[in-house]
Amino acid sequence: MSFTNQLTAQSTPQNVRQAARQGVMSGPTSGLANGYVQVNLVILPESQASGFLRFCQANPKPCPLLGVSEPGARHCDALASDLDIAKDVPAYRIYRNGKMSETVPDVADIWRDDLVTFAIGCSFTFEHALIQAGLRVRHIDEARNVPMFKTSVPLTSAGGFGGNLVVSMRPFSAADAIRAIQITTRYPQVHGSPVHFGSPSLIGISDLQSPDYGDSVSIKEHEVPVFWACGVTPQQVLIDARVEFAITHSPGHMLVTDIPDSTLALF
């Protein structure tokens, strides 16, 4: 997977969505359309939507809700104008009978009138604030997808859903880690402050070079790994719940919205 050459940090959200819709953009969205909110997607049949809503409300750190569609709608005015939820993400995952069955460039052919879309805040949003503060974000520097890990940290079960937290990781020096904590605390709607930093074994991670999702990145000798709650958490939850049918974004391949990230900052 690769970035489209024409897409950059200065691209508009509409540019990114159109490139995905046309099938010419298939790579991760980190570092694109800086200044605009990116979201994770969970798309479920209406029969399971109320249960998943209760799960998100019980677990706001990994599942901060920014929008919920009407059943069958492929648009959501709270997120963007000119939006096609079934086509505007670079890659989607389809789940059948409790297993991730395939990754596809769009889901228009399998869209159903009973599908409800949940838009969940993504940590790619606060990366722009980190970069503006002069911090280096390693996976962007190395043109890789952010590393994501399953943990031993339990979630609050609700609505028939449960399991353990998934986290994203970014390495920083000790001083930069403190600054990153200060900055991301301002953005609770896109996961906010980290859930852990330091020894990964304390949250059940055995090898930082073998992420469960995304790509590994280099970690320098003087750096400490910093872990944020991740919007991929629901994807593992869907598998654990053995859902009959669901759609999500592919990890790292987000929906870029028209929402300025500055509107989510608390101060």
Sketch the topology as an H/E string, one letter per element: HEHEEEEHHEEHEEHEE
The CATH homologous superfamily of the largest domain: PSTPO5379-like
Number of strands: 11
Structure class = alpha+beta
Written overview of the protein:
This protein has two domains: 13-123 and 242-259, 3-Layer(aba) Sandwich (PSTPO5379-like), CATH 3.40.1640; 136-229, PSTPO5379-like domain (PSTPO5379-like fold, 2-Layer Sandwich), CATH 3.30.2040. 20% of the residues lie in helices and 26% in strands. It is built from six helices and eleven strands. It has helices at residues 13-21, 46-58, 124-132, 138-141, 174-184, 233-240, and strands at residues 36-45, 65-68, 92-96, 99-104, 115-121, 148-154, 164-173, 196-197, 223-229, 245-249, 255-260. The strands form two sheets. Strands 1, 2, 3, 4, 5, 10 and 11 form a seven-stranded antiparallel β-sheet that branches. Strands 6-7-9-8 form a four-stranded antiparallel β-sheet. A hairpin with a 2-residue loop joins strand 3 (92-96) and strand 4. The chain starts with 12 loop residues before the first helix and ends in a 7-residue tail after the last strand. The mean pLDDT is 95.
